[in-house]
From TrEMBL:
Catalytic machinery residues: C14, C14 (nucleophile), H119 (proton acceptor), H119, N134
Membrane association type: Peripheral membrane protein
Subcellular location: Lysosome membrane; Nucleus matrix
Keywords: Hydrolase, Nucleus, Protease, Repeat, Thiol protease, Transcription, Transcription regulation, Ubl conjugation pathway
Catalytic activity from the UniProt record: Thiol-dependent hydrolysis of ester, thioester, amide, peptide and isopeptide bonds formed by the C-terminal Gly of ubiquitin (a 76-residue protein attached to proteins as an intracellular targeting signal)
Lineage: Eukaryota, Metazoa, Chordata, Craniata, Vertebrata
Stretches the record annotates as Disordered: 289-331
The protein's name in its UniProt record: Ataxin-3
GO cellular component, one term: lysosomal membrane
InterPro entries in UniProt: Ataxin-3 (IPR033865), Josephin (IPR006155), UIM_dom (IPR003903)
One BP term from GO: proteolysis
SMART domains in UniProt: Josephin (SM01246), UIM (SM00726)
């Protein structure tokens, strides 16, 4: 494919690209085609002058712009036909009823020139394969023999004028090389406009991506959605920190309570009702001591070397110490409750802020 000459579109010079792609070389330039167009304009002027230079038709003809070229670079079929005559080539209208009656298979031809709305392009056989050499494509497009007739029929339905190029085309490197090998095309070339649009879209996406990355790095300006997300994350972290502080405080208080209870004798029964009243606590202690005394009476003599006696409930006995210990636990529980209430109130206040 690299050996195929393919001029891409520049301005409106599609007629130049069409001729050079057909001949497979830089044979024509805008200056040379303009010279042919001026020559054709002069021939037309001379024919109009035969009717009289003072006639209305002649003055109207002089006021009209050239029909063979314009400032954009467009050239007429007459310019293309005259340019090909230099190489001994002739154009025959493929769409004409006269040519269609010949029923010539398109694959038996060598090349076609197609035109639609002032755009020209070449379809040529190089070696044993057909190629669409449209200058609007990013590269030559391979056309199979079975698809060629359908491709030309589709162009006709779209309003294209198709011309068969008759005559011997000049030798070219691509034709000689492709006589020996056949090429394959995995991906068809895109239109130049589509490729430019795709590149532009890629640049836009790249710019957006860079903007997002810059914002994530903290060096850009975050949009409202990203700012909202950042605020939500900050509030979530703040609430987690508050819950962690509250849990830490509860654990510290629990450890403090455990530390104070270690001073009490291990024989004292553990109660889960720290919030019980002092009267209920006394009743539970008395029931426990009665149970201990009954157990001593049941045990055989001599088994208990130190029989336990029910301690006195006087102010100097163990009962008084238990009362004092339980009173301290009640006071500690009250202090804990007040501390927790204070912490909760402070947390609520912080969250409202």
């Amino acid at each position: 494919m690299e050996s195929i000459f393919h001029e891409k579109q520049e301005g409106s010079l599609c007629a130049q690209h069409c001729l050079n792609n057909l001949l497979q070389g830089e044979y024509f330039s805008p200056v040379e085609l303009s010279s042919i167009a001026h020559q054709l304009d002069e021939e037309e002027r001379m024919r109009m002058a035969e009717g009289g230079v003072t006639s209305e038709d002649y003055r109207t003809f002089l006021q009209q712009p050239s029909g063979n070229m314009d400032d954009s670079g467009f050239f007429s079929i007459q310019v293309i036909s005259n340019a090909l005559k230099v190489w001994g080539l002739e154009l025959i209208l493929f769409n004409s009823p006269e040519y269609q009656r010949l029923r010539i298979d398109p694959i038996n031809e060598r090349s076609f020139i197609c035109n639609y709305k002032e755009h020209w392009f070449t379809v040529r056989k190089l070696g044993k394969q057909w190629f669409n050499l449209n200058s609007l494509l990013t590269g030559p497009e391979l056309i199979s023999d079975t698809y060629l007739a359908l491709f030309l029929a589709q162009l006709q339905q779209e309003g294209y004028s198709i011309f068969v190029v008759k005559g011997d085309l000049p030798d070219c490197e691509a034709d000689q090389l492709l006589q020996m090998i056949r090429v394959q095309q995995m991906h068809r070339p895109k239109l130049i406009g589509e490729e430019l649009a795709q590149l532009k879209e890629q640049r836009v996406l790249q710019t957006d991506l860079e903007r997002v990355l810059e914002a994530n790095d903290g060096s850009g300006i975050l949009d409202e959605e990203e700012e909202g997300l950042q605020r939500a994350l900050a509030l979530s972290r703040q609430e987690i920190d508050m819950e962690d502080e509250e849990a830490d405080l509860r654990r510290a208080i629990q450890l403090s309570m455990q530390g104070s209870s270690r001073n009490i004798s291990q024989d004292i029964p553990q109660t889960s009702g720290i919030n019980l009243s002092s009267e209920e606590l006394r009743k539970r202690r008395e029931a426990y001591f009665e149970k201990q005394q009954q157990q001593q009476q049941v045990d055989p003599p001599g088994q208990a070397s130190h029989p336990r006696q029910r301690p006195s409930t006087s102010s100097g006995g163990l009962g008084s110490k238990l009362d004092d210990a339980m009173s301290e636990e009640e006071m500690l529980q009250a202090a804990v409750t007040m501390s927790l209430e204070t912490v909760k109130n402070n947390l609520k206040t912080e969250r409202k802020k």
